[in-house]
Specification:
Radius of gyration: 21 Å
CATH architecture of the largest domain: Alpha-Beta Complex
CATH class of the largest domain: Alpha Beta
Order of helices and strands: EEEEHEEEHHEEEEEEHEEEH
CATH superfamily of the largest domain: Nucleoside Triphosphate Pyrophosphohydrolase
Strand content: 35-45%
Number of domains: 2
Number of strands: 16
């Protein structure tokens, strides 16, 4: 039996030498024939346009660091690959590690300067924070709560297409929470905005980190309560009811959207329920 690969997050001291490192830029992660982890000291000898460095945790007990680049560069024998491709094709434990790294890299790139006074910010040793000495202000990595919901009507489920989706794929509805509203309020508002439907019996089903770039997806199931489908212009190019025995191409199995769909199908058929990837 293969031993599970374990990834744990931690704020590591970047002054310590050694360990492994992953490299992040606006084009994704650096990759060669051996994967995405490189000997850290070897990377530091390369001519990389380094923006910042962060100790992000341990993978199989080994320390891992993140090198954030100012811009992507060509490295002999290497290519760049986006995070979504790792999610669809790669080792899920590696994807979890890279998802976390991508969020830290995005946060570091977006918080080089204080949003209050504009002065350069500094990393806080031993803490995942950027600090402005002038304002005595700390900025931590941002997590944006959002909802994703499967709406059902007996043996029918509501699925929709965004213009940004892979051609042919339909998925559940989703949207970001607004200040002052609960997650359930967000479900009702987003469903009304996107397809003009009312829902009832909203039930929380689980959550998933969604690092595109820094969301926490709160998954729900809701039942149809009334209305006719009217897709929101510029957001939804098509939305319709699908019979559970005649479904279109669906999202990737590792996504919470697919989990919500598969869970409902399993409960309707009495088969084993899927497990939400953590």
């Amino acid at each position: 039996m293969t031993r599970p690969r374990r990834w744990t997050t931690a704020v590591l001291d970047i002054q310590v030498s050694g360990g492994w490192a992953v490299v992040h830029s606006t084009q994704g992660f650096l990759l060669d024939g051996n994967g995405v982890m490189f000997p850290r000291e070897w990377l530091k000898r390369q001519d990389l346009p380094l923006l910042s460095e962060h100790g992000i945790g341990h993978f199989d007990g080994e320390p891992v660091y993140l090198l954030v680049l100012k811009h992507p560069v060509d490295v002999e024998g290497c290519t760049w690959q986006g995070l979504r491709q790792f999610m669809l094709e790669g080792d899920f434990d590696v994807y979890r590690k890279l998802g976390y790294a991508a969020q830290i890299g995005t946060w570091a790139r977006e918080h080089r300067f204080c949003g209050s006074c504009g002065q350069a910010m500094q990393q806080v040793p031993g803490e995942r924070a950027m600090y402005c000495e002038h304002c005595d202000l700390r900025h931590y990595p941002r997590i944006s709560p959002s909802m994703i919901v499967l709406i059902t009507r007996g043996d029918e489920i509501l699925l929709a297409r965004s213009p940004r989706f892979v051609p042919g794929v339909y998925s559940t509805l989703a949207g970001f929470a607004e200040p002052g509203e609960s997650a359930e309020d967000c479900v009702r508002r987003e469903v009304m905005e996107e397809v003009q439907l009312e829902v009832k019996n909203i039930q929380y089903m689980g959550s998933q980190c969604w690092p595109f770039p820094h969301s926490m997806m709160l998954g729900f199931h809701a039942e149809y309560a009334g209305g006719e489908i009217v897709p929101q212009l510029d957001e939804i190019e098509d939305a319709r009811w699908f019979d559970i025995n005649d479904l279109p191409p669906l999202p990737a199995h590792r996504s919470i959207a697919r989990y919500l769909i598969d869970l409902y199908l399993a409960r309707r058929s009495g088969t084993a329920e899927p497990v939400l990837p953590g």
